[in-house]
Automatic annotation (TrEMBL):
Species for this entry: Tunturiibacter psychrotolerans
Highest taxon listed in the record's lineage: Bacteria
GO MF annotation, one: carboxypeptidase activity
Protein name (Swiss-Prot/TrEMBL): Carboxypeptidase-like regulatory domain-containing protein
The UniProt record lists the keyword Protease: yes
Keywords: Carboxypeptidase, Hydrolase, Protease
Length: 114
């Protein structure tokens, strides 16, 4: 009887700990989206930049033919600023908060100028 109880307790503990990251292990997430002009046409070769608010480090990505961009495995406990430039024009800045707990966040960017 004690063996059954021990097995049951261990099974419940394993289920509870299954999705919990180990302490000290940073959480990572992904940021994807599309870049479009004011007519909602995709912008190929736009330069999307993401700035880590803690380090002020900036990483760039050039959009594909469909205007898509992707930043994989960015730190989860950090706020980010995201914007793009295209042929000398710059979009507004969008924020990705560390409190946005989506593992796969999406921010679509639109160029509002004429």
């Amino acid at each position: 009887m004690n063996t059954r109880l021990l097995v049951a307790v261990l099974a419940v503990m394993a289920l509870l700990l299954r999705g919990t990251p180990l302490s000290g292990q940073p959480s990572l997430r992904n940021l994807t989206g599309t870049v479009q002009d004011r007519h909602h046409e995709p912008l190929n070769d736009a330069v999307v930049e993401i700035e880590n608010e803690n380090t002020k480090g900036v990483t760039s990505y050039i959009t594909d033919r469909s205007g898509r961009y992707s930043f994989k495995r960015i730190q989860g406990e950090v706020d980010y600023r995201v914007w793009f430039t295209y042929r000398g024009q710059r979009s507004g800045v969008r924020e990705l908060s560390q409190f946005d707990d989506h593992h796969n966040a999406t921010i679509n960017l639109v160029l509002k100028s004429h």
